[in-house]
Amino acid sequence: MRILILGAAGMVGRRLIERLLAEKTIAGEAITAIDAFDVVEPQIAAPEGVAIEAAAGDIADKATVEALVKKRPDMIFHLAAIVSGEAEADFDKGYRINQQGMSYLLEAIRAAGENYRPRLVFTSSIAVFGAPFEDKITDTFLAAPLTSYGTQKAICELLLNDYSRKGFVDGVGIRLPTIVVRPGKPNKAASSFFSGIIREPLAGEEAILPVADDVRHWVASPASAVEFLMHAATMDTDVLGARRCLTMPGLSVTIAEMIEALREVAGDAVVNRIRREPDAVIEKIVAGWPRDFDASRATSVGFSADKSFADIVRAHIADEAARG
Amino acid sequence: MRILILGAAGMVGRRLIERLLAEKTIAGEAITAIDAFDVVEPQIAAPEGVAIEAAAGDIADKATVEALVKKRPDMIFHLAAIVSGEAEADFDKGYRINQQGMSYLLEAIRAAGENYRPRLVFTSSIAVFGAPFEDKITDTFLAAPLTSYGTQKAICELLLNDYSRKGFVDGVGIRLPTIVVRPGKPNKAASSFFSGIIREPLAGEEAILPVADDVRHWVASPASAVEFLMHAATMDTDVLGARRCLTMPGLSVTIAEMIEALREVAGDAVVNRIRREPDAVIEKIVAGWPRDFDASRATSVGFSADKSFADIVRAHIADEAARG
């Protein structure tokens, strides 16, 4: 089993590779090779028995994508993307990386011919939805994004469905909740603060909260993101019919609830490191984001959510301790 | 007022031009020039005072589209498309004409700079929806097309929304019902028979009905299509917010109801020219199409439907008589 991972150097990509290397098999077959691709070369210590080919490049370069597909991976994880804030600021770059990259990938797979139909797991986003919303967004609610990032993800979903329907690829799109707590540094995503207000206080640092405490959001842990990917890679796709893209189950929590969970796990001194500094630009972007979902389609086919936000905080603390 | 019409040689395009030339003004301004573009050169007898520039070309050729936009039309009607049956049969051609053409158009408009923000009326289709459906599809139902044509239209809608949201264009997308009765010859659209079973019997010819009598469909007359375009071109778009694409109001009728309306208007002898010859391919495509809508968003902003199917049949007879 040869696996291609686009966006392999990102937080989710690195965790996915760790998991694949720990499992050693997927869908009942031995993992023999992993092609790890990103805009910066992924750093992976390869264990025995698995050939790791790490490479850096541009996913919106047609020849680059064709060369990756030419190795005929049995399974492809497409996690590469420009985040929402950057796609909004740089219109051309967003469409190039987030949409053109996917088009090249699908075309390269299709061009490989009838005997090649890999499983393609694509990470979409709840940013495909835009206000006004239903109270709980159901699986038949329209995609009406309010950002270019959300638009690009929605277009990729449509393409994934059509290429799957035509039999060119065996696609599954998973709309990830906002992943919290992301380790490391803040990124350019407008959602970056959702992790920051947990991560920075736990690390003894001040965190900026740019939105109101009653803002409600839809989140999942990094560990859940990897579970979603693994299930999407191995599930029976016949049950999906022509609708290959699913809203992943998450937790609907307010900022206040997140802060109370942090207090429960880590105490007042940690919570007091959160400083409220409203940011009109971020508030406006976040106001257009969905807050709660009925993700029953995904749960009916085997995806499952985190149990509580306190558990997510505890898992982050354990991860950081393991990392040293 | 300079107006660009892409797809000007088609049935709806020709009717739109007739209407514009009859009106002489639009949105309170004199129509001074019409650029009429299509894959075949549109034939238009120009009246005094309006400069008609008819041209044939490829809408999926970047330089061609840029040259059309360089004339800085104040209003653009984008009606050009490969029909559903052809887009399904020729995957590359469908994406090239139906999606790449729109991308080039939007990019050319954006590249023209901040002082240029034309009204762009785009004809989308109810083919953006795919089964399973709500009984009456509402304005917040997901776009889940079951054809490449529907996928391409849905992608164009997302792009139109995003480019409008960013202020590059002032877009309105109108999801046309199936237009019945189309004059002239059958075309490659899988929906062609919906017109054929009315048009051919009235012309003394046999018509093939490839689906069952209880098939329900969503239709509008050619005259309504032109009304929709005129209203989309002149309406206040502020009321649309970020959701620039609307399902147009239509009539939900079964084949049996259509046939009874034909009988009411034209009698048994005409109806008897319909021959039932089931076609599994067309039945499968049509089974994936929507049948009924709650188009209240469109009606709330001033679009209106045909009154009855018998009226549609009578209007077709009158049109044919006028044409001689």
Topology overview:
2 copies of one chain form a homodimer.
Chain A: E1 2-6, H1 11-23, E2 25-26, E3 29-30, E4 33-38, E5 51-56, H2 62-70, E6 75-78, H3 84-89, H4 91-111, E7 119-125, H5 148-165, E8 170-176, E9 178-179, H6 192-202, E10 207-209, E11 216-220, H7 222-234, E12 245-247, E13 251-254, H8 255-266, H9 268-271, E14 274-276, H10 280-287, H11 296-300, H12 309-323
What this model shows, in words?
Two copies of one chain form a homodimer. Chain A is an alpha/beta fold and 324 residues long. Chain A has a domain of 218 residues: 3-Layer(aba) Sandwich (Rossmann fold). Helices cover 42% and strands 18% of the residues of chain A. Chain A contains twelve helices and 14 strands. In chain A, α2 runs parallel beside α4, α6 packs parallel to α8 and α8 crosses α12. The two termini of chain A are 33 Å apart. Chains A and B meet through α5 of A and α5 of B.
Number of helices of chain A: 12
Oligomer: homodimer
Structural class determined from secondary elements of chain A: alpha/beta
Count of strand segments of chain A = 14
Q: What would you give as the CATH superfamily of one domain in chain A?
A: NAD(P)-binding Rossmann-like Domain
In this structure, how is the largest beta sheet of chain A organized? 7 strands, parallel
What helical percentage do the residues of chain A reach?
Answer: 40-55%
